[in-house]
Amino acid sequence: MKKLLIGLLAVGLLVGCSSKSDNNQNKESKVVKEEKKDVTKQETDQTDVNQEESKYPFPSNATPIGEAKLTLSTPAGDSSDGNTPVLFVQPDDSLIQIGADYENFQGDKQTFIYVDKTFDTAEQIGEMTQSSVNLSENRLKPGVHTVTAVQFENDDPAGNVINFVEAKYEVKEGK
């Protein structure tokens, strides 16, 4: 009886050890796969950003059209009445948001947002919509920058422009 019990324990330990070894190999394999997945995801994310920029080029020869209005807001004021609000930026700032108030856009169409003629995002904006614009890298460099909101016929960025409005903000170095 003791021999049978010892034999069962030995078999149990051998099975347990081999399972642990397999589990460790599976865990290591899983970690490697997750690391590869993260790298692939980062590459895909970067590719998506580049594709979006080239996928929706800034409309050429477009001028303000339609009833839409865009007002940008910074702590120094807003862009109403053609003003250019100032944004003070510190050297270590990497991302800042400024307010964006949209009026009289067609809610059944996408609105394509560009910053300095570079595609940023497509949003659903209606009669009165409050949002924000993310500013980073070149958009935080000193100088005057332009945010443009555009709606196209049939949501086709290669089609006719039905709403086109711009507003400006100015970046200055903070002390």
Task: Show the helix and strand layout.
Blueprint: H1 2-55, E1 69-74, E2 77-78, E3 86-89, E4 96-103, E5 110-115, E6 118-124, E7 128-135, E8 143-152, E9 161-173
Parallel strand pairs: 3-9
Antiparallel strand pairs: 1-2, 1-4, 4-7, 5-6, 5-8, 8-9
Structure commentary:
- The protein contains 1 helix and 9 strands.
- By secondary structure, the protein is of the alpha+beta class.
- The chain has 2 domains: 1-55; 69-173, Immunoglobulins (Immunoglobulin-like, Sandwich), CATH 2.60.40.10.
- Strands 3-9-8-5-6 form a 5-stranded mixed sheet. The protein has a 4-stranded antiparallel sheet with strand order 2-1-4-7, with no helix packed on it.
- The longest helix has 54 residues, at 2-55.
Short description:
By secondary structure, the chain is an alpha+beta fold. It is about 30% helix and about 35% strand.
Can you give keywords for this protein?
globular, 175 residues, five-stranded mixed β-sheet, alpha+beta, four-stranded antiparallel β-sheet, single chain, 1 helix
Overall mean pLDDT score? 78
Specify the number of helices.
Answer: 1
In one word, what is the shape?
A: globular
Order of helices and strands: HEEEEEEEEE
Tell me the name of the CATH class of the largest domain: Mainly Beta
Helix content: 25-40%
Unreliable parts:
7-11, 17-53
The span between the termini is: 85 Å
Physical arrangement of strands within the biggest beta sheet: 3-9-8-5-6
Domain module tally: 2
Structural class: alpha+beta
Q: Give me the CATH superfamily of the largest domain.
A: Immunoglobulins
As for the CATH topology of the largest domain, it is Immunoglobulin-like
- Largest sheet: number of strands, sense, barrel closure: 5 strands, mixed
Q: What is the level-2 CATH architecture name of the largest domain? A: Sandwich
Classify the beta-strand content into a percent band: 35-45%
Number of strands: 9
- Rg over CA atoms, rounded to whole Å, is 28 Å
